[in-house]
Amino acid sequence: MAVIVSLVPLLIIIIIILWFVTLKKRLTRKSLTLRQSTLIFIVYVTILLITTVVSLFLPSSEANIIEDPHQSEEWNGGLYMKAMQGEFSSIATSKISRSWEIPYTGDVITLASDYYDEGILVEKTDELNGQIEVYYIKDWQTLGVNSVSMDVSEYTPDMDVEMTSNTLQFVSPEKESTIHLAFNDLAFPMKQLIGESQFGNGFGSSGSSFFYIRVPRNLNVEFSDYMYIDYVEN
Amino acid sequence: MNVIECEGLVKKYGSLNALDHISFSIKENTITGLIGRNGAGKTTLLKILAGFWRETEGTITVFDRRPFNNLEVSMNSIFVDDMMSFTNTLNLKELLSEAQAFYPNWDAELAERLLGYFNFNPRLVHQSLSKGKRSTFNMIVGLAAKCPLTIFDEPTTGMDRAVRKDFYRALLKDYLLNPRTIIISSHHLDEMEDILEDILLIDEGKKVLQLPVDELKEYAVTLSGRTAVVMQTLQDKEVIYKRNVDIDNCSVVVRNNFLHGEVKQLGINVSPVTPSDLCVYLTKGQGGGIDDVFNKSKSV
Amino acid sequence: MMSLTKVSLSNVVVMQFRYKLKAYSGVFLALMVVQMIGILLSILGHGGTSFSNGMYTVDVTVSSPDLVIFLTMIWAFMNAILITTKAYREDDFTFVSNRLSYNLSNMAFLLTVCLIGTVTALLTTGIIRILAYVTADIDIFLTITHGVTIADFVAGGLATFLFILLAATAGYLVGMMTQVNKGLIILLPVIIIGLNYVTQSSSNPGFVNMLEFYFMEHSFIMFSIKAIVTILIGFGLSIVFSNRLEVR
């Protein structure tokens, strides 16, 4: 289906060319008078002008374009590595998408999840007693759109956590949701002069988000094998 | 002063010479009829004069300039034929005002009046006109432009007889008011010989003759009488064309450069030849006319 | 006697240009039709990406005036061919003209219609946005404005104009070559293959290099120089080719 759709513009271009060629003799054999065609064209330009003005008032937000995805350290799991090296406090609060403070007095806590397959970092600290802190950190979610890559993490739904007796459950949103984004790309000559690549695709979709859990030092953390869990080095 | 000077002009299409070393000149402020049979090279000659086509050999000057690609020649001349192309986004009235922008001598009042006289709907477009109407409109453009050199190539194509007569009258009147050099090629020489001053007759790319019309009227006479008698007198005469030759009677067209008295004494009838007929005879080649095609058995 | 009128080339060119704007007004309607098709196709077949990880799907539909600009380039190419054809040429030579004034007024005409085509093509951005917004069920509407200055927009607009004009130049040259001699059509593939051979490099076939020559140039100054030089060469060759053309 996608192939057919992508062929449609090509097909129509060919039809236009053929149309021009067959009309080569005289485009305006039975044409409108100068006055009529001027009028029609003025109407067309007026519509374009009006819609241009109207389009400026469409509710829109700025796309978060990733300039140079391959070289920036930040896009290579930077935050996770940082946090793992004990520099959680240096992570910008804007990256912390949700946080929970849960009172907990047990000796053992079990971590469980349904679909969640991204990273979980556990920090054992002396600062906490009788409670645990859970942070959901959304670093980035890139999506290749045409020739650019943009970060769409701020539009993706957040994970939730649920505490039941001694189990901390990471819960995905209730049903699978679809986020519809519309992106207005610049015209290609502008992109070209800004220095963006004309051809090829932006790099594919991948993301980085993780849970950061602070627990009292003496709390035992248990989890099943299939979960990716690291401990903060401190 | 000569407006057009042409010396040894050749136009080749492949191996065919459409114009074959033709030389002539046309004086300023004259009306010249360019006469010739189909394919004689009339249109080729006129298009070279107008600067549309390129000569292969020879020299041609119009207003002392080589016409091909010359803007000044284009500015001061107009070429009118039935193939004149006008845009169909503009109606006739708008076309006339566009033409006005191009031609400095444009006579808008004349154009307007002629448009009215010939019952044109000024809101029509050129392509929607009938063939005759189109020719009439082109003629109006040609007249109103008042170019120092005005060329009409078969201007009367499709016009009915009444319109043709009007056209010749309009042309003559306008010429008297605004003398200029006009060249008309046409098949209807008999209709327009009254307005022409000179005639340039060409055949197969060559000039046959160029004479004032008055001289052309005197150029030849027809001798008719008994064959034996006529044939005898022909010996010292320039025979142009023999027609209706049979055993008893014949009539022969000869150059009119002898005294008529002595021939008349022999009982031969001497009658004038119209320029129109003469042009036909001069370009017919030897061996008679269309009749011969059908008279296979008889040879001259 | 009637005195000869002195003429200046520029006067005749201006008169012919003004006549052409009226006589060839059909090209504006064609432009409109082509761009409307472009707008429709932009809405129907807009490119997009989606990403799904089992928990959510992100679906992005992209709209840009690229297709409209591309179709406008084709329009410019075809129009340039069209105005070199006999029917259009005869309109010119009905009135005062020589080949130089004919070419110059054609170029002025192409310049003008390409400018109008550029402006309308860029203006379709608005209607494409609105239609994309209206036709699809959109949660968030993303645009790029940060880091794009007015100067970028102006430079981009000029670059669009030059692209469209390049297409027109190509069409005009091709059209003029075929008018002068139909045999020159055969030369075209030869030239293209030859250029392809000359410009090929170890990594790319020639046509990719040729496309990159224009489409991958990020410096506005360099791009303008490349485009303008190409356009001047193209028009210059057209004038040379047509200078011996017989008309009517």
Please, could you describe this protein's structure?
- The complex is a heterotrimer of chains A (234), B (300) and C (248).
- With 234 residues, chain A is of the alpha/beta class.
- Chain A has four helices and 13 strands.
- Chain A folds into two domains: 54 residues; 166 residues, no CATH class.
- In chain A, the strands form two sheets. In chain A, strands 2, 3, 5, 6, 7, 11 and 13 form a seven-stranded mixed beta sheet that branches. In chain A, strands 8-9-4-12 form a four-stranded mixed beta sheet, with no helix packed on it.
- The mean pLDDT of chain A is 76.
- Chain B has 300 residues and is of the alpha/beta class.
- Chain B has twelve helices and 13 strands.
- In chain B, helix 4 runs antiparallel to helix 5.
- The N and C termini of chain B lie far apart (47 Å).
- The mean pLDDT of chain B is 89.
- With 248 residues, chain C is mainly alpha-helical.
- Chain C has one domain.
- Chain C contains nine helices and three strands.
- Chain C has a two-stranded antiparallel sheet with strand order 1-2.
- The longest helix of chain C is centred in the middle third of the chain and has 37 residues.
- Chains in contact: A-B, A-C, B-C.
- At the A-C interface, helix 1, helix 2, strand 1, strand 6 and strand 10 of A face helix 2, strand 1, strand 2, helix 3 and helix 5 of C.
- Strand 1 of chain A pairs parallel with strand 3 of chain C, so a sheet runs across the interface.
